[in-house]
Amino acid sequence: GFSWWPGVVVTWRATGRRRATHGMRWLRWFGDGKFSEVRRLVSLLSLTESYVRVCAAQVAGARAGRAFPPGEQGAGEDPTKPMLEWAKGGFLPEGSEGLRPVATSAGQMLPYNVYLEISYMYDDDGYQSYCTVCCGGREVLLCGNTNCCRCFCIDCLDVLVGAGVSASARALDPWHCYVCQPSQSSAALRCRPDWSQKLQEFFASDHDPDFEPPMTYPAVPAEQRKPIRVLSLFDGIATGYLVLKDLGFKVDQYIASEICEDSISVGVVRHEGKIQYVHDVRNITRKNIEEWGPFDLVIGGSPCNDLSIVNPARKGLYEGTGRLFFEFYRLLSVARPKPGDQRPFFWLFENVVAMGVNDKRDISRFLECNPVMIDAIEVSAAHRARYFWGNLPGMNRPLCASGMDKLQLQDCLEHGRVAKFGKVRTITTRSNSIKQGKDQHFPVIMNGKEDVLWCTEMERIFGFPVHYTDVSNMGRGARQRLLGRSWSVPVIRHLFAPLKDYFACE
């Protein structure tokens, strides 16, 4: 278990980062081992100055225009009783505050950040990791409805619906949650009619002033969800398909454009021929899209060789492989739903962060949105900063590691091998990208000698199953090139998770 305390103040050297800004301190959280730069550290004795035992119901009442004077409850009576009785009678907070989490009395929006981080976190079984309502819960009940992946903790049921409700729900097999059957709850735990739209607005609260906000789609009822249809351009080693299946999606069709024979071999072997390959993206026509479609999701990441400023011979966005971005834009435009078609349609484009300012600006201008920068260092043992453009719900929510993510290099190594570093730099197609620091050290010690990363270890770093790229007698160099061009599995899982509200799952 962890310490009773949530974290400890550490020196900047322990973080491996820069010195803390003036007036701030570095904290290491015991729960996940991450570091945060915080300010306003005060003595523990000052806790009582800002501590309020119960404030959630009071804030909810204030938002709905209902106040609770201190004398409303009798002596010795639970002060929350009149609040809960009023709440169970039915209320609906209105306005922009309607779906905003309650702040602490000190004004810190910790519940807001927690909700952003873990509301779309899923376990291996495909269900939410935490309660839909409170993003917590020591014991949760899983919805038995097909395609629904929600869970509710027993505390929320007993407090918000009624005492003993959780015990009754346990006896039901299957039990359907309050999102699938909102009519079964007549107390405080009820879905508002526009909950889905409000939820999307909640995650997209920081619209870029340079572009129109993307269209948001209400969640599809569980019984109406259909298997997803995907068009993947520059597919690589089928990371998109792997993540969709890991999340439990039913994939009706997965069309992949890829010209690398080694990448195609990995996709064919590992996914048993369920991916339809169509080779060169430049040969795909409007007629092809109409025959294969309609598509629900279009994804891709064009080659970054001629965009990356690391390449001194780069040709930019308008020459060489940089021009392939416009093939993505062309096919995305063709695949979009026709005017008047309101079905959910999503897309995602990825590329390197280290690109020229003008190239980034032009890509954003064509795609009509600015990118989100996500670094896989938060959910893996290696740096991998990438730009992601798209309209997936909650793209800008914080990246939060799950229990299945391997965050330290040592966690990715085979038995008998010792990591010299906690994390490694970005692994690319070049063999020397494995070496670390200015002195070019190998990252592993084995039998007292430095050693390179093995292929299975690199696969773990990227989040792939062990031996995922071990097909067709490929050597170490070829397998590293495949991985160096691929996406980080935990990052794509983070981006795809909100789509479970729209498409059928197993």
UniProtKB/TrEMBL annotation:
Keyword Metal-binding among record annotations: yes
Species assigned in the record: Scleropages formosus (Asian bonytongue)
Domain annotation PWWP: ranges: 1-50
Active site: C304
Entry keywords, A to Z: DNA-binding, Metal-binding, Methyltransferase, Nucleus, Repressor, S-adenosyl-L-methionine, Transferase, Zinc, Zinc-finger
Protein name: DNA (cytosine-5-)-methyltransferase
Subcellular location: Nucleus
Single GO molecular function: zinc ion binding
Main location: nucleus
Domain of life of the source: Eukaryota
EC number: 2.1.1.37
UniProt record, GO biological process: methylation; negative regulation of transcription by RNA polymerase II
Pfam families attached to this UniProt entry: DNA_methylase, DNMT3_ADD_GATA1-like
